[in-house]
Amino acid sequence: MSDIFQEVEEDVRRERYEQLWKKYGNYVIAGAGVLVVAVGAYQGWRAYDLRQRQAISDRYQAAQQLAQTGDAAKAEEAFASLVKDAPSGYATLAKFHLAGQYLAQGKRDPAVALLQELANGSDPVLSNTARLRLAWLLADASPKAEVMMVLQPLSAPDSPWRFSAQEVVAYIDFKDGQRGQAQAEYEKLAQEAEAPASLRQRAGGIAEFIRANPGGVPITPPPPTLPSLPTAPGAAAPAPAAPSSPPAPAKGAK
């Protein structure tokens, strides 16, 4: 008897399945088709996105190579193109490099404008890097008060950029002939335990030079080296305390 009941139960179940399939089978087939199309579209989009990213990366590397060979005009054109149509990460870094190519051709005003734009960005590392680069750019030709305004956000007591900002101020005082004040600032930097060793060593060397030449030996400060940048989006950001090179004695000074 149990076999008969089992067969009846299986027949009932089969009949229910057939009814369900007749009612919803078309929807199941349509859903499966949509799923297949969606998966195919997603895979196609991923392949397209990868090709686009690779193309941008190749263009960025080509622009860097142009800059390294000294072809500033073509490098400017290449980086300007990336600024216009590259994703935000590459476009932002291209702006930094574009500012450098402007400077290489003596185009100071557009370089300043780009760095001011970057200094107002939302990423604190990139905006502070731009602010420090801008301060070094202004240090040789702008009033000290203007440079101090640029440096103000970096100068907070808890800012990791404060030592780099202090070095810019010491450089300006040194350049402007305020040797006593500059010496004190460099000596203070040389004793800052939290400052990078390279900055302390550099500051100590300049302080010693000023101390050894109280009469004011003529010097010709070289252009400062601006902070470096990541080579591509996602690379390590520049260390906040990596400062630019300070002025050095002119050839023949003792």
What distinguishing features does this structure have?
254 residues, mainly alpha, Serine Threonine Protein Phosphatase 5, Tetratricopeptide repeat, 2 domains, 9 helices, elongated, disordered C terminus
Strand coverage percent: under 5%
Number of domains: 2
Q: Any idea what the radius of gyration is?
A: 32 Å
- Helix proportion range: 55-70%
Major sheet size, sense and barrel closure? none
Number of helices: 9
Structural classification: mainly alpha
Mean pLDDT: 80
Strand tally, please? 0
Q: In one word, what is the shape?
A: elongated
- The topology string of helices and strands comes to HHHHHHHHH
Low-confidence stretches: 220-225, 234-254
Measure the end-to-end span: 116 Å
Strand-helix topology:
Layout: H1 2-68, H2 72-85, H3 88-104, H4 108-119, H5 124-139, H6 144-151, H7 162-175, H8 179-190, H9 197-212
Helix pairs in contact: 1-2, 1-3, 2-3, 3-4, 4-5, 5-6, 5-7, 6-7, 7-8, 8-9
What do these coordinates show?
It contains nine helices and no strands. The chain has 254 residues and is mainly alpha-helical. It has two domains: 17-120, Serine Threonine Protein Phosphatase 5, Tetratricopeptide repeat; 142-254, no CATH class.
Short description:
The protein has 254 residues and is mainly alpha-helical. It is built from nine helices and no strands.
